[in-house]
Amino acid sequence: MSRILKFISFGKPVHPEVVPLLAIMGVALTGVTSFCIYALFTKNDVMLNHHSKIPPWEKSIDEVNPKLLNLHSLQKLDPEVRKLKEEINQKSA
Q: What angle do CA 80, 84, 88 make, to 5 degrees?
């Protein structure tokens, strides 16, 4: 145990009561960082490139439900709105 404490403290004296706190904070920091990376790459409402003309939430398909549990599964997009979205996407590309 003393080798681990010396490694964590970089040779300075450390109280052993601080080690669990450091471990908990390390796990929390790792979890927050991994969730931020996950949200950047998988969520439609997170936008990295602000120079594009169409935000990602406009490009999403409305018939595909990303939720795990959906109570009202009959969700249809109006054909006129779908046609308008396709025209907007074609003009901007």
A: 170
- What's the CA gap between 18 and 79, in Å, rounded? 61
Amino acid, single-letter form, for residue 42 = T
What's the CA gap between 77 and 61, in Å, rounded? Answer: 9
Residue with token string 């145990």: 1
**CA angle at residue 41 from 34 to 56, to 5 degrees?**
145
DSSP 53: S
This prediction's pTM? 0.45
Q: Specify the amino acid at residue 29.
A: L
Structure-token pair, residue 3: 């080798």
Dump pLDDT digits (tens) for 21-41: 889 999 999 999 999 888 888
